[in-house]
Design a protein that fits this description.
This protein is of the alpha+beta class and 112 residues long. The chain has a domain of 74 residues: Translation Initiation Factor Eif1 (2-Layer Sandwich). Helices cover 24% and strands 26% of the residues. The chain is built from three helices and five strands. The protein has a five-stranded mixed sheet, with helices on one face. A hairpin with a 5-residue loop joins strand 1 and strand 2. The chain is elongated. The chain starts with 15 loop residues before the first helix and ends with a strand. It holds the Pfam family SUI1. Keywords: Protein biosynthesis, Translation regulation. Belongs to the SUI1 family. InterPro entries: SUI1, SUI1_dom_sf, SUI1_euk.
Length: 112
């Protein structure tokens, strides 16, 4: 018999090193969404902030900066979520970047 060294190709995942790396922002995004309430009223939600940040302090600064009301809601699937009154998507993303909480490429803005 002849011994041949043949390598059988296995499933290759090009993103394995990104999944395993502990680099900040490798797979963690901050999602900023707007939800329509009734009529012209809407609600802005911010989720995906790291657990080592105090969401209550961030919320306090957001409320002062944008002159709106808001609260922190505990969700079973998503964890703690910040809710703000009104469409504050652009304002909230600029605030998070200027405060140094997240980088600009870590923010995903959803909505109409």
């Amino acid at each position: 018999m002849v011994d041949l060294d043949i390598q059988i190709p296995a499933a290759f995942d090009p993103f394995t090193e990104d999944k395993d790396s502990g680099a900040p922002g490798a797979k963690e995004y901050v999602h900023i969404r707007v939800q329509q309430r009734n009529g012209k009223k809407c609600l802005t939600t911010i989720q995906g902030l790291k657990k080592d940040f105090s969401l209550e302090k961030i919320l306090k600064d957001l409320k002062k900066e944008f002159c709106c009301n808001g609260n922190v809601v505990q969700d079973k699937e998503l964890g703690k979520v910040i809710q703000l009154q009104g469409d504050q998507r652009k304002n909230a993303s600029q605030f998070l970047v200027t405060a140094g909480i997240v980088k600009k490429d870590q923010i995903k803005i959803h909505g109409f």
